[in-house]
Structures are given as structure tokens and as C-alpha cells.
Specification:
The structure holds three protein chains of three kinds.
Chain A lengths: L11 H10 L6 H18 L23 E2 L9 H5 L5 E2 L2 E5 L4
Antiparallel strand pairs in A: 2-3
Helix pairs in contact in A: 1-2
Chain B lengths: L8 H9 L5 H13 L7 E4 L1 H16 L10 E5 L26 H8 L3 E6 L38 H8 L6 E5 L5 H7 L2 E4 L19 E6 L2 H11 L29 E5 L9 H16 L3 E5 L7 H16 L17 H12 L2 H14 L4 H22 L5 E5 L15 H5 L6 H6 L3 E8 L5 E7 L5 H14 L13
Parallel strand pairs in B: 2-3, 2-4, 7-8, 7-9
Antiparallel strand pairs in B: 1-3, 4-6, 5-6, 5-10, 9-11, 10-11
Helix pairs in contact in B: 2-3, 5-6, 7-15, 9-11, 9-12
Chain C lengths: L2 E2 L9 E3 L2 E14 L36 E2 H13 L7 E2 L2 E4 L9 E4 L9 E6 L5 E13 L3 E3 L6 E5 L6 E7 L6 H18 L11 E10 L9 E6 L2 H20 L8 E5 L4 E4 L12 E2 L6 E2 L2 H9 L5 H12 L3 H8 L2 H11 L4 H19 L10 H12 L5 H14 L3 H8 L7 H13 L2 H9 L4 H11 L6 H12 L2
Parallel strand pairs in C: 1-9, 14-15
Antiparallel strand pairs in C: 2-3, 3-12, 3-13, 5-18, 6-7, 6-17, 8-9, 9-12, 10-11, 13-14, 15-16
Classes of the chains: A alpha+beta, B alpha/beta, C alpha+beta.
Bound molecules: magnesium ion (MG) and zinc ion (ZN).
Zinc ion binds next to loops of chain C.
């Protein structure tokens, strides 16, 4: 039995870092709450370390068959109105966002 | 007056086809009942006007003898299925005004059989929850109450709107999704039949994704026969979904009531150690006895890794969700909340558009996939998933079905578990392993506990063996005592 | 032919203030797969189109949309892998690369990370000095293109078009085996030739079908690799060279002035030929790759790979060898001919049954300079290979002199007529009949008797007589015969 503890503590910085990665603004109060909740959850999932997974292949889908392929046919497109029908901002059939600086 | 309370899908279909009442009459009865049930807060959107038009057309078809298999029957649909021209919100502020121009495969298949959309049903925001309390339209309410109590209870989640609507007889069939128990747990909490088919059995195309490797559509109904009828028209191959299985659809209705004599039922010994309410434990024992009486052989089986299913699930599902929900960024559709620049726009839109539970899960998912943590969490969970899957595969070499309770408790009060995520998550301890393994399972109402609340028995069979679910489910349906809800306290 | 050890030999250096520097270059080439539809959706992959016209619900990442892979794109990747003499992986996985950008509608790019479809391969590149180097290919994987952002339509906003969103790309990654801008340019040219032979990518750099990310670092010869910078998205071979030269010089200057190189993403500015740090990419990315749960692993059957292998065309290296062997061409001419398979095809058609050397000279000389002037591809040549062949035949059988042939060729370019027809119509065939030539020679000598004496002393004047005779014959007299006769008559 392999037993190793991840011992990865969630700090306020962690919360800020991942909320930036996930592009989610969070308030100061939220940071505190999330820090404690996520810490609890992460230490709870650490239970997985009790499981010996040596030589176990990860499973990302329960289906055991492999990818089905389609033929190379143009069957879609030309539906500008569908694409833009829920758009919060568009012009000349483009989506519009605040200027991006590269 | 049509007696909606005692009407199930099969009997409504028969009555319509025998012209005992018209589709318009039926629809009007449901509309009136829905209007009187607003206290339950089960519908995000109603579709009465379009539904009436469709019901008129159905009546024409019935008169002309052109009725399709489910002609004129109203359905409620979880607000996660995209419905053309009808708002689809996933019960989230971020999609509060989203109107798809397209129809999900599942709802399209049902429309093709003549079914009519009566409304979109509430769920936990983006299907993340076990109580239907995180919907942007507020908590949905269970039509059941404890005996001599005024306390309002949750209908379960995430498909609480769907389970509640069927339990309150607001529609004979609700279409829902199950990622970790989101059909079966609410079914157990509301005395309804909830079916999660094999992963790949029903198309996911057009369903707002939560965790793609786990999400599966299924019906919530009053009876097993209804469930089998619904699945018949939902199941099948869809070339638009790469994970849809190209396997023939069985004639599920044939399995109902078929003898189980000589068949084998597995009882996982690890589940006996779980913290289950006494009445639920008792009910489980009762069910096993019903199966013995029906001639089944009962064997003890081992699912040694099942106890790790919940933590594995709470890594895998948030990881997939963190990526699936990245598309809600305020650029192409949905709410946009402006900011100083694009980065601000993203953060405001997502920070204010998502609710607390969704944000927490996105952050957990982001964390477990991020550099330095991927192997320790995500990859580890995927390995454990493999072991859980293997446990089931080995068990099904010996047994035809596995029988367990659906939930460790009956319905709890609104607000009771909201502040404790882990307690909330533990609701799904018996349902989650099934999703990780991609197996089919059904929850059948199996009796009332001492508080007068419904309990559910979960039956699990091998991949693509849905027929056996109905076969084994019939035993519970026949053997249990009455589960009629005595009071319709919510009607106004 | 010599092959240099690509990794260790110092082939090229640049001069710094205090010594030599070696430049280490690796490339990531994004090559658009030639296909009718996109990698995961059925919308058109063709270049251009009105904004948003080649966009499906899948490409716009509408809720509930799912990817289904294009078999032809998979074939194209395998074919390319075979053309790069690479290992084809029968098991590969599609992953999600997660980041937010407005032209990335899903919030992730579907790519391949851990398990690419093609593994290690190699490309032979002939350098100007006649030596060959082997550039090792690390991998090739399939991925989606993003949409396009326009920053210059509006002063306040960026505009997003999704026509390219989801178009299939092959990312071809080299080992850091290149040592100069010249080598890099030759490599990309060779790679483009191979892709065009295979017809897996049209190689059209103006349309963005081929873009390079360039990794550049510098080191003192023999020392360890330095810190590298990545120059993103350079879309012409000339710019690739300019970007490398600028960046290598910049890095040498930084180091020689005591500053460290910061690993970063840079942009090549076409307007001033400089590279600069990309502000938007400054924050360290954490792409959180994980297997796309909407897509199962891709598994390639042996027969599928065999079938593609059997369809492979003759590739430039083989073709070159064969041209040298069967036609006795030199390496220089062979290189020119194989640089475009249409050249080689044209050549082989002309050279069939004719003198290869004369054929190649006509093609690389007259034909290429004419095409160049007319700005035409060889596919659109006004002179077909049959016609050029006919022209060469007319030279060989003495109908046309070299000079006349050039005149006829000019007329062919204009009229697209066959050389025989032109010769007939304009009575251009060479006068070889000695008595006819003699008449003209006599005439010229008689009217220029004064020059005859002079010519006896200064034999150079013979040329003048020949010229006069040619002029009199309207260029049709056989020059060799004229020459002989003039000499004979004057008495030299
Ligand atoms: Mg790259
Ligand atoms: Zn790439």
C-alpha cells in the first residue's frame, strides 16, 4: 500500500491565482470563504492517496471503444443570424470586444 | 376533469389515442395545475402558448388517424436541454436570456413522436448540486412534507424541478440529466422513478455540458412502464455525439414484469458500512427479501474502491466543468458585464454571472488541473476511476443486478445542508460510483420512512443492459406499500 | 553527399563584440490541413468568405455542441507523417488546452499533448554549399485553428471573425537542429515542398496556411543551450529569416552587455523588421491540458495506415535521386526541378525521348524567365510541355536554329500556338540548302568587296559578314553553314 500525503496547502494566494486563471472576479470576503471551503475539500480528496494506483492506466471515459470519424463533407455554416442571435455586442457580423493589445 | 394525479404516461397516451379527451383538454388541465403550483418554484420558463398551438395540431393528427407514438403528451424538460426558440438558462444568471436557435437531439426525438414542451424545469445551476437550491431562480420545493410538519424540503438535485414536477403531477414525464446522481437522487426524494441510462445510450448533443464524461440524459416518471416507454424514444445513436453508442435499442417495455427467477442479485458489502438512515437500511433489507420471494439468488459482492468514488468524482467533475464552462465569457452569447478591458470583462461576467457553488467547482477544477497538481489530483482520480470501473466489471461477471438504496437519507429541509459542501456531497455516495463506471441505474420508489417521506431503491446493471433495470425494478414496484402523497398542500 | 552531424558540429556562427556565437533554432510550423470541412465540424475550411459565414454552432461553441472528427484530416496527418519518415502512433489522444482569448470561442483549443498522432521523423535539407543536413522532427499533432481578431477596424474595440475557428492544423515541431536564418528558410521551403507533394497543405503563406513559431537562442560554440525566446506566428519565409537575424543579434547584444535573456514570447514587427515582447502573453500560462472528455482516444488500424502508405507519391528526395540517375542531370538542376512537383512533371514530359540537358536548359532558362515575367505558375504556362517538346524537336531536326527557336518561343508565349504551326504560318524554317545560302553569301560579298580585303587581315570581320547574311535571310539561314561558306568564299 502506497501512502503519501500531498500536503498541498491552499492559501489566499492560491485562490487568487486560480481565480485569475479561471477569469473569475472574487471579492475579499469570497476569498476567505473559498480558501476555507476549498482547503476542506482538497484535504478530503487527499483520501485517494490511500489507493495503490501503481501500473493503473488512467480512465478518462467509461466507454472502451475508440473515436468514430466522419466523412469530410461541408454540411454546415452559412448561419450568421444563428451565430449572432444571442450576441451581447456585434457589428458587421463580427463579435465585438474591448480592444486587445498584443 | 382529467385526474392528472393518478394519471401516468402510459395511461395518458392510451386515453389520448382512444379519444377519451383531447390533447388541448389535457394540456389545459396541466396548465391550470401548474399555475396553481407556483409555490413549488419548479418551472424556470413555461411554454404554454406554443404548447397550445402544438396541442391543436396533435388533435388534428389524432382525428385524421396520423397520431405518432406520443402524440399530444406534454413534457417538462430540465433547463439544461437546448430548446429552439425557448429560453435555456441552465438556471444560471450567465445564461438568463439565452434563447437557442437549435433543439437538443433528445427533445427533438420526443417532438418527432408528437410530444409537446410545456416548460423548462429548474435545476441546480449548471446541474451542480444535490438539492436544487443553487438555481438562479431560487430553490425548488419538494411536493412532499414530513407528517405533521410545515418544513419545506428540497426535491433533490440537480434535477429537482424535474422530479418535483412529476411528483406534483405537473407533467407525466420530465427529461433530466444525471452526472453523479442528479436524476436518481431527486427521484428518491420525491417518490418518482428516475433512470440514468448507460453513458452513451442517449445523445448529449444540445445539452449544456457539466462533466462530459459523466453526463447522461434520462427520464423521470411515475412508473417503471413510463420510464421504459420514454427511454425507447430517447435512446439511440447520434452521429453528432462522438460518445454516442451505435448499439441497437432494446424493446424495453417487454422487460417489465418479466420473471427474475434464478437470476442473481449482488449486494455490495462495503455499502453496509455506510452511514445510512435506519429506515433506509430497513427498506434495503425489505427489498432484498422481495427479491428472494421473487426467486432471485442473493450474493454478497465487493466493490472495494467504491468508497473513493466521491472524492474521485469531486476532482473529475469539477475539472471537466472548469473547462466546459470556459465558453461562458460574455463574448458570443449570454450576459456580459463590462470592465476596464477585456480581462475585466471576463472576470466581471464570470464573477457575477456564476453562483457560489459553480464558482467553487470551477476553481477546484482549475486547481486540480493546474501545473504541479495535475498528477496528484486529476491523474490520480482517473486511475481510481479505472479501479472503480474494474470492480463493477468483475461484479457483473457474477451477478445480473446490484441492489442498493439510492440515497443515505430521505429529503432534507431547504437550507439545512447548504453551508456544508461535504455533507451535501455525501448525498451522492451511492449514485456517483455508477456514473464513474458509466453504468445504467434506476431509482424506484420503495416505501415511506417513519416521517412519511419517500425512499428509493437503486438497481444497477451492466453496460447497455437497461432492459434488466425495468425487469428488476418491477419487483420493487409490485412489492412495496403505497407511496401516495396524502396532501397537496402547495396548491393555491 | 556529405551529411553533417546536425547537433554537435558547429556549422555557422555570428560575430559578437568579443567572439563567435552559435545560433540555435527550432521551429513549430502550423500547417493548415487541406480539407473541405473543419476538423470537428461540417463547416467549410476554405479561405476567405464573408465574416461568420463559415461558422457552425460547434465552431461558435454554443452550449451543448460537440466535436466529431474529420476522417480526412486524420488521413492527411498520417500521410504527412509518412512523408516526414516519421513514426505513426496507432494510439493518440485529443486534449484540451485551456486559455481565454476572444477568438477562442470554447475557452480551450482541442489539440494533442501527451499522445500526438505522429512521432519522430526527419527532413533532409540541401544547403547552398551542396551539403545536406538532417533536421529531426520531434512530433506532428492535429489541432484546431482559432478565429481571427481584427484590431484595426475600430479604435476602441477588437472585432472577431470565427471563419477560421476549428480549421484543422498540423503542428510540426522540429528539434533545435537549425543554426542560421538561411538553414531555417531552406528547411521551411523544403517542408513546404514536401507538404505540397503530399497535397496535405497548400503551403500558401499569404493566406496563413503555413505559419512558423520560431524558438531562438544563442550560445558560445560548444557550450550549453542558452535561454530561448519564441517568436510567434511568422508568415513568410523571408520574415522567418529576418526575425531570426534580428533576434539572434538582439540576444548577443543583451548577453554581451551583461543582461540575461528572459524566456518570453515575442512578436515579429513587419514594419521595422524587429521583434518585441508580447504584452498580452506576458503572464505565465498554465494551459491545464487534459484529455477532451467529448472525444475518445483515436485508434488507427494497420490497414488504414497501410492504405495511406500505398497512396504516397514519389517525394522530392527520391525524385531527385531518380532524375539524376535516369536523366544524368546534375544535382543543381535536379534540385530546381524537384522543388515543385509540377516542374519535375513538366520536365519529364518534355524530356521523354529527348535530350534531358537541352530540356532542362529550356525549362529553367527560357520557360522560367518567361513565367517569372508573366507572373504565372507552371500550371498556367502558356507553353505546354508537349509544345516545348515539339520546339526542341524542331531544333534537333535542323528546322530551327537556336536563335529562330527563341523567336518562335516568344510567339508561342503570345499565341499559345504549336511551334510547327508558327513555323509554317510565318515561313520561319531554317534555310539549310547550301545553294540558297551561297546565293546570299555571294550577294553580300559582291556589294562589300572593300571589306573582303580587310577581313583577310582581320578575321574578326568574318562575324560581320555572317551577320549580314543572317539579316538578309531574315535569320533563317543555318548559321553554321553561313559561317563555313563565308570563310570559304573569302578564303580563310
Ligand atoms: Mg506551439
Ligand atoms: Zn499549435
Amino acid at each position: 500500500m502506497v501512502s503519501k500525503i500531498n500536503n498541498m496547502t491552499i492559501t489566499k494566494d492560491t485562490i487568487l491565482k486560480i481565480s485569475n486563471l479561471a477569469k473569475i472576479s472574487i471579492t475579499d470576503q469570497e476569498v476567505e470563504k473559498l480558501e476555507s471551503e476549498i482547503s476542506t475539500i482538497i484535504s478530503w480528496v487527499d483520501a485517494l492517496n490511500e489507493v495503490d494506483t501503481e501500473n493503473v492506466t488512467p480512465m478518462s471515459n467509461s466507454l472502451t471503444n475508440t473515436l468514430r470519424m466522419r466523412e469530410d463533407l461541408v454540411t454546415d455554416g452559412n448561419k450568421v443570424s444563428d451565430i449572432l442571435s444571442n450576441s451581447p455586442a456585434d457589428d458587421e457580423n463580427f463579435f465585438v470586444v474591448p480592444k486587445v493589445i498584443e | 376533469m382529467i385526474d392528472l394525479v393518478s394519471s401516468d404516461l402510459v395511461s395518458i397516451r392510451n386515453s389520448l389515442q382512444n379519444k377519451e379527451f383531447t390533447a388541448v383538454e389535457l394540456l389545459n388541465e396541466y396548465i391550470e395545475r401548474i399555475s396553481k403550483s407556483s409555490r413549488l418554484n419548479l418551472f424556470n420558463t413555461t411554454n404554454f402558448e406554443d404548447a397550445l398551438k402544438a396541442a391543436h395540431e396533435s388533435d388534428q393528427k389524432i382525428i385524421k388517424g396520423e397520431a405518432r407514438s406520443l402524440e399530444g403528451i406534454p413534457i417538462g424538460v430540465k433547463d439544461l436541454f437546448c430548446t429552439a426558440g425557448v429560453k435555456t438558462t441552465a438556471s444560471s444568471k450567465i445564461l438568463e436570456n439565452f434563447v437557442p436557435t437549435y433543439e437538443s437531439t433528445i427533445t427533438q426525438k420526443l417532438h418527432n413522436e408528437g410530444m409537446i414542451l410545456i416548460g423548462k424545469l429548474s435545476n441546480d445551476e449548471f446541474a451542480m448540486g444535490s438539492s436544487n437550491e443553487t438555481s438562479s431562480s431560487g430553490p425548488a420545493v419538494n411536493p412532499w412534507k414530513e407528517i405533521n410538519s410545515d418544513k419545506e424540503l428540497v426535491p433533490g438535485g440537480s434535477s429537482g424541478g424535474s422530479s418535483g414536477a412529476v411528483a406534483a403531477s405537473l407533467c407525466p414525464l420530465a427529461i433530466a440529466t444525471d452526472t453523479g446522481g442528479s436524476i436518481r437522487q431527486p427521484a428518491a426524494f420525491t417518490g418518482t422513478v428516475g433512470l440514468k441510462p448507460t453513458y452513451g445510450r442517449c445523445s448529449r448533443w444540445g445539452i449544456v455540458a457539466f462533466a462530459s464524461s459523466l453526463d447522461q440524459a434520462g427520464p423521470i416518471t411515475k412508473t417503471i412502464a413510463d420510464s421504459a416507454l420514454a427511454l425507447k424514444y430517447m435512446a439511440g445513436y447520434d452521429e453528432k455525439d462522438s460518445t454516442s453508442a451505435d448499439i441497437d435499442v432494446e424493446d424495453y417495455e417487454q422487460s417489465i414484469g418479466k420473471s427474475i427467477k434464478g437470476m442473481t442479485i449482488g449486494v455490495p458489502k462495503e455499502y453496509e458500512e455506510l452511514d445510512l438512515e435506519d429506515d433506509i437500511k430497513q427498506n434495503w433489507e425489505d427489498a432484498i427479501n422481495w427479491y428472494k420471494s421473487a426467486g432471485a439468488r442473493i450474493v454478497s459482492i465487493s466493490l472495494p474502491h467504491s468508497k473513493y468514488a466521491l472524492p474521485a468524482y469531486y476532482i473529475i467533475a469539477p475539472a471537466e466543468a472548469s473547462s466546459n464552462l470556459a465558453r461562458y465569457d460574455g463574448v458570443k452569447y449570454g450576459s456580459r458585464i463590462k470592465g476596464d478591458d477585456l480581462d475585466d470583462l471576463y472576470k466581471n461576467t464570470r464573477g457575477l454571472g456564476f453562483g457560489a457553488e459553480v464558482k467553487r467547482r470551477i476553481l477546484i477544477g482549475t486547481y486540480v488541473l493546474s501545473a504541479g497538481y495535475y498528477d496528484a489530483y486529476y491523474l490520480k482520480a482517473q486511475k481510481v476511476r479505472r479501479l472503480i470501473h474494474k470492480d463493477f466489471v468483475e461484479a457483473f461477471e457474477k451477478v445480473d443486478a446490484i441492489v442498493t438504496p439510492t440515497t443515505p437519507t430521505t429529503a432534507f429541509g431547504i437550507g439545512e445542508n447548504l453551508s456544508d459542501p461535504l455533507k451535501m456531497y455525501s448525498n451522492d455516495i451511492l449514485t456517483v460510483p455508477v456514473n464513474l463506471a458509466g453504468l445504467p441505474a434506476i431509482s424506484i420508489p420503495s416505501g415511506l420512512d417513519r416521517k412519511g417521506l419517500p425512499m428509493g431503491i437503486q438497481i444497477v446493471t451492466n453496460h447497455f443492459n437497461e432492459g434488466k433495470l425495468f425487469q428488476f425494478g418491477s419487483v420493487v414496484e409490485k412489492s412495496r406499500s403505497s407511496i401516495k402523497n396524502q396532501s397537496e398542500w402547495w396548491l393555491i | 553527399m556529405n551529411e553533417i552531424n546536425t547537433t554537435s558540429d558547429v556549422r555557422h556562427t555570428i560575430e559578437g563584440q568579443n567572439g563567435e556565437w552559435e545560433v540555435i533554432i527550432g521551429l513549430e510550423i502550423h500547417a493548415q490541413v487541406t480539407s473541405a470541412s473543419k476538423l470537428f465540424s461540417g463547416s467549410s475550411a476554405s479561405f476567405g468568405g464573408a465574416p461568420m459565414s463559415h461558422v457552425s454552432l460547434v465552431d461558435a461553441a454554443m452550449p451543448g455542441m460537440l466535436p466529431v472528427i474529420n476522417k480526412h484530416c486524420v488521413r492527411q496527418a498520417v500521410k504527412t507523417g509518412l512523408g516526414l519518415k516519421a513514426k505513426i502512433n496507432s494510439y493518440s489522444v485529443f486534449d484540451r488546452k485551456n486559455y481565454f482569448y476572444p477568438d477562442l470561442p470554447q475557452g480551450y483549443q482541442i489539440s494533442q499533448f501527451k499522445y500526438p498522432i505522429v512521432g519522430e521523423g526527419q527532413v533532409k535539407v540541401s544547403l547552398k554549399d551542396g551539403e545536406d543536413i538532417i533536421v529531426r522532427i520531434e512530433r506532428l499533432h492535429l489541432e484546431q485553428d482559432a478565429g481571427k481578431s481584427f484590431h484595426d477596424i475600430d479604435p476602441e474595440n477588437s472585432y472577431i471573425d470565427l471563419n477560421r475557428s476549428g480549421v484543422a492544423l498540423m503542428e510540426i515541431v522540429t528539434m533545435p537542429d537549425l543554426r542560421s536564418s538561411e538553414e531555417a528558410k531552406l528547411f521551411v521551403t523544403k517542408l513546404r515542398t514536401i507538404l505540397r507533394y503530399l497535397e496535405t497543405c497548400d503551403g500558401n503563406m499569404e493566406e496563413g496556411s503555413l505559419r512558423a513559431d520560431i524558438n531562438v537562442s544563442v550560445r558560445k560554440p560548444g557550450e550549453n543551450l542558452g535561454t530561448r525566446c519564441e517568436i510567434k506566428n511568422v508568415n513568410s519565409i523571408r520574415f522567418i529569416g529576418m526575425a531570426i537575424d534580428y533576434e539572434a543579434r538582439r540576444q548577443v547584444n543583451e548577453i554581451e552587455n551583461g543582461r540575461d535573456i528572459v524566456q518570453e514570447t515575442r512578436l515579429f514587427d513587419v514594419s521595422n523588421g524587429e521583434t518585441r515582447s508580447m504584452r498580452s502573453k506576458e503572464e505565465a500560462h498554465d494551459y491545464r491540458y487534459f484529455p477532451d472528455p467529448d472525444l475518445l482516444p483515436l485508434s488507427l488500424e494497420d490497414d488504414f495506415i497501410k492504405e495511406i502508405t500505398s497512396e504516397l507519391p514519389e517525394l522530392p528526395d527520391h525524385k531527385k535521386e531518380r532524375l539524376i540517375k535516369s536523366y544524368g542531370l546534375n544535382s543543381y538542376d535536379a534540385d530546381i526541378l524537384v522543388s515543385d512537383k509540377n516542374y519535375a512533371e513538366y520536365f519529364e514530359s518534355v524530356a521523354s525521348g529527348r535530350d534531358p540537358k537541352i530540356s532542362v536548359n529550356w525549362i529553367t532558362g527560357e520557360l522560367f524567365s518567361a513565367l517569372n515575367k508573366l507572373n504565372l505558375d507552371i500550371q498556367d504556362t502558356p507553353v505546354s510541355s508537349d509544345q516545348l517538346g515539339e520546339l526542341i524537336d524542331l531544333i534537333s531536326d535542323g528546322t530551327l536554329s537556336g536563335r529562330l527557336a527563341k523567336d518562335v518561343f516568344e510567339i508561342m508565349l503570345e499565341t499559345r500556338k504549336s511551334p510547327k504551326l508558327i513555323v509554317e504560318e510565318r515561313d520561319l524554317s531554317q534555310i539549310t540548302d547550301e545553294s540558297s545560302i551561297e546565293k546570299i553569301v555571294d550577294k553580300i560579298i559582291e556589294s562589300n568587296m572593300d571589306k573582303v580585303e580587310e577581313a583577310r587581315e582581320k578575321p574578326k570581320l568574318i562575324g560581320w559578314f555572317v551577320g549580314q547574311v543572317m539579316k538578309e535571310s531574315q535569320g533563317k539561314a543555318n548559321p553554321a553553314k553561313v559561317n563555313d561558306l563565308v570563310k570559304k568564299k573569302i578564303g580563310i
